[in-house]
Amino acid sequence: MPVIGISAGRKNKVTESVVKAVLDGVKGDPTFVSLSGKLIRPCEACNGCVATNRCVLDDDFLWAADQVRESDALVFGAPNHFRHMNSKGLAFWERLCFSGRHNALFPLQGKPAAIVAIGGDGGAGKPVLEDLRRYFRDARLDLVGHVEAQGEYACFTCGYGSECAVGGFASLYPLGTEISDDNTPSIDNQHPHLPGSPCHHGSLRDEAIEMGKAIARVLACSDPGSPSQRT
Predict the structure, then answer these.
(1) Closest CA to 57 of 73, 76, 38
(2) pTM for this structure?
(3) What is d(CA 173, CA 200) in angstroms, rounded to the nearest whole number?
(4) Sign of CA dihedral 156, 127, 148, 38
(5) CATH number of 93's domain
(6) What is the mean pLDDT of residues 141-156?
(7) If phi over 0 gives left and psi between -120 and 50 gives alpha, with beta otherwise, what is residue 18?
């Protein structure tokens, strides 16, 4: 399995879209996995993984972790929830890092990896980026780079977003503003609340694809059979 892309965000939202765009840049036959709807419990610190470096909690994490271990490279994306990576992403990485580090095994050591960090407004992806950098360092992954993007607050689809004074939508638009495709963030519609601003750069797709190409170059350089390694 050359490259795997994992989204810890909601299905069919910005996290998923950006991860898939990075995989488009890798080309070949990458695998995409959504953690949405999957059961991933938090680490219980039970030490059941010490002898085998495999978590003993029986849920969907085990299959996803196997996919990561078998891959040649990893793209992982997650959204910002309350100034840190969302709980599903945190649970995934707690268990992946804790189970892998016993006896200094580090099964992901040296694997190229990229981060997709999503936030509801400009700069709000940075806590996700910081969280994932910390986990990547612990797992001894080789960070190729990252892509930050504006995501869609859940308030855009909750049914009350345009009238809720404490919601994410109200932090971007005046109360009573009608929610539409034109003012909803997506991979191809970044920062629509800031028309004319340098932040309103439209599509992020090309940047994501370039990140995928960077991963492909790293893999090609590490493959003795690739054209770049032949003399």
Answers:
(1) 38
(2) 0.94
(3) 15
(4) negative
(5) 3.40.50.360
(6) 97
(7) alpha
All residues at 6 or more sequence positions from 210 whose CB lies less than 8 Å from its CB, including other chains: 25
Let me know if residue 218 belongs to a domain: yes
User: Could you list the residue range(s) of the whole structural domain that residue 129 is in?
Assistant: 3-151+186-229
Query: Angle at the Cα of 61 (from 59 to 116), degrees rounded to 5?
Result: 145
Decide if pLDDT at 198 tops 90.
no
> Mean pLDDT over all residues of the chain?
94
Cα distances from 53 to residues 50, 58, 67, 76, 110, in angstroms, run 6, 14, 15, 21, 17
Q: CB–CB of 148/180 below 8 Å?
A: no
Nearest to 8 by CA among 107, 72, 66, 84: 84
**Is the model's pLDDT at 168 over the cut of 90?**
yes
Look at residue 1 in the predicted model and tell me its pLDDT.
Answer: 63
The predicted model gives 7-24 an average pLDDT of: 98
Q: Which of 5, 15, 8 is nearest to 152 (CA)?
A: 15
Q: Which residues contact 228 (CB under 8 A, 6 or more apart)?
A: 220, 221
Task: Convert the pLDDT of each residue in 83-141 to its tens digit.
Answer: 999 999 999 999 999 999 999 999 999 999 999 999 998 788 999 999 999 999 999 99
| Length of the chain in terms of residues written | 231
In total, how many domains does the chain have?
Answer: 1
Token reading at 19: 């991860």
